[in-house]
Amino acid sequence: MAKGNKTGGRVAGTPNRLTSELRSVLKDMLFNELQSLPDRLDKLPDKDRIEIILKLMPFVCPKVEPVSSGGDEPFKWG
Fold it and tell me: Which of 1, 22, 48, 65 is at 20 to 30 A from 7, Cα to Cα?
């Protein structure tokens, strides 16, 4: 086989069927788990529930980064 010559497998640009099927199955599983999450959280003790919610927050709420004013920039309110 000469280097760089494709001799088998998928044609370039053809999607990998196994990968797309796997993503579809995982997507369905994740959707079902997310649907049952509120009920599962309600059954947990307060401490565990708060801990899990804090771990999930970065996926929903963006982190706020501090903004500092440079010495030569004017500072205005409003």
Answer: 22
Q: Do residues 14 and 20 touch, judged by C-beta distance below 8 A?
A: no
> Domain limits of the chain?
17-59
Q: Is 71 exposed, middle or buried (0-12, 13-18, 19+ CB in 10 A)?
A: exposed
H and E: helices and strands count for the chain: 2, 0
pTM: 0.50
Query: What is the Cα–Cα distance from 52 to 58, expressed in whole angstroms?
Result: 11
Tokens 């771990």, residue? Answer: 55
C-alpha torsion sign, points 45, 50, 55, 60: positive
How far is it, in rounded angstroms, from Cα 6 to Cα 4? 6
Whether 21 and 27 have beta carbons less than 8 Å apart is answered as no
